Amino acid sequence: MAESALPILILLCFMGGAVAVVLATLRRPAAAWPITMVAIAAAFGFSLRLLATVLDGGAVRHRLGGWAAPIGIELVVDGLGAFVICVVTGIALLVGCYARWAVRREIPERESTFFAMVLVLLLGLSGIVLTGDLFNLYVFFEISSLAAYALIAVGDKRAVVASFRYLVLGTLGASFYLLGIGFLYTLTGTLNMADAATLLPELAANPTLRVSVAMIVTGVGLKMAIFPMQGWLADAYTHASTTTTAIVAPIMTKVSAYTLIRVLGFVYGFDLASGRLPIGTALAWLSAAGIVVGSVMALAQTDVKRMLAYSSVAQVSYIGLGIGLAQPWALVGAVLHVLNHATMKCCLFLVTGTVQLATGGRTLDDYAGLGRRMPWTFGAFTLAALAMIGIPPTGGFFSKWYLTVGALEAGAGGLVVVLVGSGLLTAGYMFRLLERVWARPAPEMVMRPVGAAAIAPIVVLGIAVVVFGVINTWFVTRVIMPSLPGGMGGGVG
Amino acid sequence: MIETLVPRWPYVCTVVLMLVGLYGMLGKQNLVKKLIGLNVFQTAIILFFIVQAYKTGASVPIWDARLGAVADAYVNPIPHGLMLTAIVVSVAITGVALALLIRIHRNFGTLDEPELLDAMKRSP
Known about the structure:
A: mainly alpha, 3 strands, globular, B: Helix Hairpins
């Protein structure tokens, strides 16, 4: 495995950026946003470089402090990790462009702490993706969560209560994860992922192994909002400020999903993890339940932001379902959906934020006729909404297509029904909104102006939704398939 | 049953402590008590790690010429190191949680969950 300094450089960008924001704003409060953008842009550049390096020469690693694993902690990045880190930093960059306008409107007096927290959040999330050590992952989990609790609390009056609930459940989830690696450590005496992966197959018969898998899946599932542990998500996303929702919703649950793939696929191996306990099947069916519950709850909402929050529950469950099936095509769909859902959900939440800041409207009826008043914004919104439903050639169609193929190949007919049926439910709540946006007369009201810097990221995301759909085979064949666990990529014909 | 549990009494204790914590988080209505439950739960996990590092008759993991380089003569230092980090994490979380509770009390004037839900319904 080649050595590379790129993983640590990404982490240093965010860490240094957060410290620099706090120090610089002591004298110049206006410096917060430019410093944040420089840090995120540099990290995005390093991430793209990392993806190129990994695609050319395979996985890379960085030994922290020069200590070799398993004594030391190492950062390891394979194709999957490089892909997810690009999604995380890319979304962060676009939301960052938007944030200047929104944060000035919503929370002008707390600008510097807000941006410092965003950088800490990104530090935690990229740490989760980059690390090759199980305990290190726990620490990054908590770093990102602490920043997220603080960010979510900065919202309307109820946001603090939502944040506290999220804190209690999120910490419970992390504690279960910690307990799981405690059992794993008792069993193997190592915390390094690659080292544990080589030691575990000999211990397949040990009951401790099953306990540790169950604990880890429960813990990460809580953070990922897998049914029935999705209760914290809707309130947290609804009451948080615009920028917070736009950055937390697209990437945070996806990074937890990545953790699940990493631990189940690469540390335990899907066969070992599901050997005696049907963890995979349970995960797939709970996710299916999450898809149904999330879609139905979304249909019942009149607040658009809350509707999208429930739809997030459903969409993350698609990823959970793909992981649970542990079938090559389903995993391709799950990983592709990380990218697609991040893109479309970020676009949708940015638009709801813009509408709220420009008109003060939140409910479905407040959106009536807005398409004529904000054509660019709602053009992108429509593309993202079509992708949510899964209409070709948008990205959303292809990830659901791969998931459906995977479910068919695995012989899970019931799951295919859920996948197709939830597409109809999504169409139900999305068309209800799109009809109001485009088919109603434009309202006579004074709107606060929306800056071009706020509209640009929305339009970019709207176009990206279609572009990622058109070029999805590049992602699948070049990035995702070669990095599936245990040579599964070969099983995709 | 009894024969398997008695020699493992430290583990039994951590499980009991964990259940106490879970009960606090799920069964209590006051948000501060929920937080205390969470802390008890985290402490149980910390003790779980420390218990598995324990060896009967072993010394602290600092080099001692009289004991030599015998692994069994020292307790395992890694879980202790890990739990030092976990304690820091848990302190940070408690701090953030208490800050949130102060804000909740300022916004709604109560920390009792049913009263809080009422107050949230009444406020816009």
